[in-house]
């Protein structure tokens, strides 16, 4: 497939402000801190695990790890999963006759090729075959016999489920002729058999599950279930280390598949297995052949040559059939259906069926097929099924993250979508579009695993953007017809506050017309009390919003689409096809129909969220024959007409770029709440990003101009907040520059040189800079020619005061300081420095008394172990917190000026789990937290010391997709907070 004009989109996920807090004491004194309360005796589920483990002589940690990998300790109130798992232990009970009857009654899938041509294609995809019977489908009944309890109790009672799971593990250990050892590592074979039902035929099924169980044992786990049950599994690295579990960080070479691929065309036979190294995958190809002697029909995909520039979506499906049955369906050419990947429920095993470069027929929309990868998840047509196995989520999320990184797919829900969000390509196809993976797919958990968590933010702005984000927990259980009360992934939408559902909608799970699903983004149309309206399907759609089921997207630089000026409305399309002239130029037949709008419009005055701020070219891949023998076969037709993909209703849609305007979305995420601003020097120049810790959102790193127009590899920054403006000072090329950022608009002023418009020319080139504020005055301190100099900007009077020689005032010798930092307590300016002697010095300017003083604080805080290469200081009330890098590790000492004492050095590196040496450090204070940022291996990391609870967080990588995003290698940084 020739490369089209589509390019990878910029990643624009909402993201959390910091990593989860670790249970570590805040540094105080010489590394001491407040003791954390020890947990009391276990209750509820925790006690049930302990009792069952003791009863059946199974290691408690192993039993917990098995259950976590089955269900994350959720009971699901006795309802089955999509593959017949029940309760906390995920034991299976599948009635094959009932599954077969349900599949026989199911509506067949139509036209997954996605042509949308009712005249040419009436093909129905065969219903997947029923699951193949095996002991793995009946582990609940086996467990019930072992413990002598009715099967219904194991489905509905958590204790009996856990007892049954423990009994099964013990029985599998006995069958393996091994004693009930206390060491979890000795139970590996029993865990494999637990997953596959003890089939004992040597097959690989169950091995992946066991690997994950021992991976959980290695790192531990802790969570509170949706029913409010706290459960903790302590880490046990030793158990995993000497078990047969595979190290999933090591890539394994796949076995040869030549024997099963020889019947494929040459273009397909050489396709490699495309799968992350941390998953155990295989390749079992979908059929590619012509069927019918005269019709020319073939299946099940189109040979192409797609690259990352062609792929911008990942589509999640479920099979409504067993793993083996789905695979068999895709291996019949007459099915005319395929997906790139299929995931097995019991252990998360991944089978690739179509090479990513080829176009699988999975979405029922040719445009989405051309530009997506499809992932099928095993799921039977079970009555009452309402959840998916943890193995499906984990494998699928790992695969999705791999594909997103490989192809540049943004980690957000506008690009990682369900089949239910694929639009009908034409109006006649809309009614038959699918609604899998359905109401009970946990998008929150899935996107967390992918690494694109949606941060909470309640500052909704009319005209701004909002992300639907209901909690997938028992706290939110709207009514769904025919289903028990349980967590769901959507909000109902109403025609007015308290009125009927929009569009005569129903509460049926399959009715997607009146639901906004988790992760989807919309423009806020109106707010009335606790009701919020969004623009949806050409109208206002209202949902009850108490602040817990939606998140405002208030990052700077966000956009919306609205109708072009002068248009009462503009058409909405189900696909993005080229204009007829493009087909003629390529000598390819024009499809009939081609560009045909849906029965939908985007009216004037309404706004919708685009999938990208750069429109994509309309295109069409012409591949009418199985062997490429037709004239101009396998040609990509690319037109001049361009489109924006948008979130239009529950599904995506397209609007022509010529019909709409791209407008900024109003936001104030960086102007209120606890927030910070970062400045950094990277290999490609200076960058800036902001974070709002109150709302849990980041803006992306974005480049800012270099002072003086040229980049300086030794550039230094300092910054602070004054009012609602960020004031930045930098040293570049030996000169000092300042610039301001208006945090309401996000705009920067140009850099200006203090030589000509400030305190005047320095006597020597500057090498270091620090700033602090006292009232409405900004004090700029620099090291120039080895001397410490200070200038002051008085924003109240609108003037600069000239440079003063601090070295003369304090008697600091030439060459005395190599690093400096500054902070202010009341009317006292503190300047901290690292001397050429490797010791830390503090100079204080008391503006009330009009005098300076300075000295070596080693005697007060103790000597540092190692060479000091970085320095930061923060003042809070009467206290000053001094942080240093000593041999790359972060240490902290604190001065209490009210008490007149210093604490000794505390080991922040140990409290935060620092493992990599750092080369630079910066710090600030917001709320009750000390925010520390450091550079390790060229990346900016963040850890937070919360003094309200006495706890440090672990380090978070700010360049993750859910934070400020990737940036070139960083060498220096500064931070300011408020």
UniProtKB/TrEMBL annotation:
What EC number(s) does the entry state?
3.5.1.28
Basic and acidic residues bias: start-end ranges: 110-119
- The positions making up the signal sequence are 1-37
Q: Where is this region: Disordered?
A: 109-134
- Known InterPro entries for this protein? Amidase/PGRP_sf (IPR036505), Amidase_domain (IPR002502), NAMLAA_amidase_2 (IPR051206)
EC class: hydrolase
Identify the residues that the record assigns to the N-acetylmuramoyl-L-alanine amidase domain, covering every copy: 301-438
Reactions catalysed: Hydrolyzes the link between N-acetylmuramoyl residues and L-amino acid residues in certain cell-wall glycopeptides
| Keywords recorded for this protein, A-Z | Cell wall biogenesis/degradation, Hydrolase, Signal
User: What Pfam families does the record tag this protein with?
Assistant: Amidase_2 (PF01510)
This protein is called what? N-acetylmuramoyl-L-alanine amidase
């Amino acid at each position: 497939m020739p490369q089209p004009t589509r390019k990878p989109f910029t990643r624009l996920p909402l993201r959390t402000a910091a990593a989860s807090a670790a249970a570590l004491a805040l540094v105080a004194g010489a590394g001491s801190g407040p003791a954390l309360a020890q947990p009391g005796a276990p209750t509820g589920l925790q006690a049930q695990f302990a009792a069952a483990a003791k009863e059946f002589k199974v290691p408690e940690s192993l039993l917990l790890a098995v259950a976590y990998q089955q269900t994350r300790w959720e009971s699901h109130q006795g309802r089955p999963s999509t593959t017949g798992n029940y309760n906390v232990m995920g034991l299976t009970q599948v009635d094959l006759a009932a599954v077969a009857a349900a599949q026989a009654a199911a509506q067949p899938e139509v036209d997954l090729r996605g042509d949308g041509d009712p005249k040419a294609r009436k093909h129905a995809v065969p219903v997947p075959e029923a699951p193949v019977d095996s002991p793995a489908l009946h582990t609940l009944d086996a467990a019930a016999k072992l413990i002598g309890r009715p099967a219904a109790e194991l489905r509905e009672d958590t204790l009996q489920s856990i007892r049954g799971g423990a009994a099964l593990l013990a029985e599998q250990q006995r069958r393996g002729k091994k004693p009930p050892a206390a060491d979890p590592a000795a139970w590996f074979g029993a865990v494999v058999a637990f997953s596959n039902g003890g089939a004992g035929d040597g097959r690989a099924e169950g091995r992946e599950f066991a690997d994950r169980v021992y991976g959980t044992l290695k790192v531990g786990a802790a969570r509170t279930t949706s029913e409010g049950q706290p459960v903790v599994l302590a880490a046990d690295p030793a158990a995993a280390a000497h078990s047969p579990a595979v190290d999933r960080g090591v890539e394994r070479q796949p076995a040869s598949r030549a024997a099963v691929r020889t019947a494929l065309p040459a273009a397909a036979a050489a396709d490699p297995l495309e799968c992350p190294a941390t998953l155990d995958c295989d390749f079992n190809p979908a059929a590619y052949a012509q069927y019918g002697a005269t019709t020319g029909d073939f299946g099940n995909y189109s040979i192409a040559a797609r690259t990352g520039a062609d792929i911008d979506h990942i589509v999640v499906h479920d099979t409504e059939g067993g793993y083996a049955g789905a695979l068999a369906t895709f291996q019949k050419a007459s099915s005319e259906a395929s997906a790139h990947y299929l995931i097995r429920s019991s252990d998360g095993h991944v089978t690739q069926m179509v090479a990513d470069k080829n176009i699988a027929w999975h979405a029922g929309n040719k445009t989405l097929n051309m530009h997506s990868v499809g992932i099928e998840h095993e799921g039977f047509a079970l009555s009452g099924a309402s959840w998916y196995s943890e193995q499906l989520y984990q494998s699928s999320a790992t695969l999705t993250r791999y594909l997103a990184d490989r192809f540049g797919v943004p980690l957000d829900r506008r690009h990682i979508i369900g089949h239910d969000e694929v639009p009908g390509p034409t109006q006649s196809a809309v009614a038959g579009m699918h609604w899998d993976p359905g109401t009970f797919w946990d998008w929150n958990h899935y996107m967390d695993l992918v690494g694109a968590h949606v941060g909470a933010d309640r500052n909704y702005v009319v005209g701004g953007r909002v992300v639907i984000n209901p909690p997938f927990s028992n706290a939110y259980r709207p009514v769904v017809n025919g289903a028990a009360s349980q967590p769901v992934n959507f909000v109902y939408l109403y025609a007015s506050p308290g009125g009927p559902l929009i569009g005569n909608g129903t509460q049926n799970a399959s009715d997607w017309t009146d639901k906004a699903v988790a992760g989807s983004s919309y423009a806020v149309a109106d707010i009335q009390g606790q009701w919020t309206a969004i623009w949806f399907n050409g109208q206002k759609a209202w949902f009850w919003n108490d602040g817990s089921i939606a998140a405002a997207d208030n990052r700077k630089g966000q956009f919306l689409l609205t109708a072009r000026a002068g248009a009462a409305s503009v058409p909405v399309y189900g696909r993005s096809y080229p204009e007829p002239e493009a087909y003629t130029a390529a000598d390819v037949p024009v499809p009939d129909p081609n560009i045909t709008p849906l029965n939908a419009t985007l009216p004037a005055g309404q706004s919708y969220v685009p999938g990208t701020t750069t429109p994509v070219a309309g295109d069409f891949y012409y591949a009418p024959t199985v062997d490429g023998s037709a004239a101009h076969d396998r040609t990509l037709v690319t037109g001049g007409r361009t489109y924006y993909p948008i979130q239009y209703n529950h599904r995506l849609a397209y609007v022509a770029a010529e019909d709409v305007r791209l407008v900024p979305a109003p936001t104030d995420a960086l102007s209120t709440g606890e927030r910070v601003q970062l400045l950094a020097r990277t290999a490609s120049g200076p960058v800036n990003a902001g974070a709002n810790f109150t709302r849990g959102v980041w803006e992306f790193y974005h480049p800012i101009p270099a002072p003086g127009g040229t980049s300086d590899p030794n550039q230094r920054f300092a910054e602070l907040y004054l009012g609602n403006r960020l004031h930045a000072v930098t040293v570049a090329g030996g000169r000092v520059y300042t610039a301001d950022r208006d945090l309401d608009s996000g705009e920067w002023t140009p850099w200006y040189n203090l030589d000509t418009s400030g305190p005047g020319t320095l006597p020597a080139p500057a090498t270091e800079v620090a700033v602090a504020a006292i009232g409405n005055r900004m004090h700029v301190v620099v090291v120039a020619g080895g001397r410490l100099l200070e200038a002051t900007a008085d924003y109240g009077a609108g003037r600069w005061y000239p440079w003063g020689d601090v070295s003369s005032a304090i008697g600091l010798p030439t060459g005395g300081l190599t690093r400096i930092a500054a902070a202010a307590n009341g009317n006292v300016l503190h300047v901290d420095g690292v001397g050429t002697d490797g010791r830390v010095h503090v100079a204080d300017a008391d503006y009330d008394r009009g005098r300076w003083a300075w000295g070596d604080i080693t005697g007060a805080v103790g000597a540092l172990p190692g060479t000091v290469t970085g320095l930061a200081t923060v003042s809070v009330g009467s206290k000053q917190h001094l942080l240093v890098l000593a041999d790359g590790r972060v240490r902290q000492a604190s001065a209490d000026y009210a008490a007149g004492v210093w604490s000794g050095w505390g080991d922040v590196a140990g409290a935060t789990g620092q493992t990599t040496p750092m080369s630079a450090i910066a710090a600030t204070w917001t709320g009750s937290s000390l925010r520390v940022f450091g550079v390790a291996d060229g990346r900016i990391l963040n850890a937070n010391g919360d003094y309200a609870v006495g706890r440090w967080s672990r380090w978070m990588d700010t360049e993750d997709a859910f934070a400020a995003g990737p940036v070139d290698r960083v060498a220096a940084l500064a931070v300011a907070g408020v």
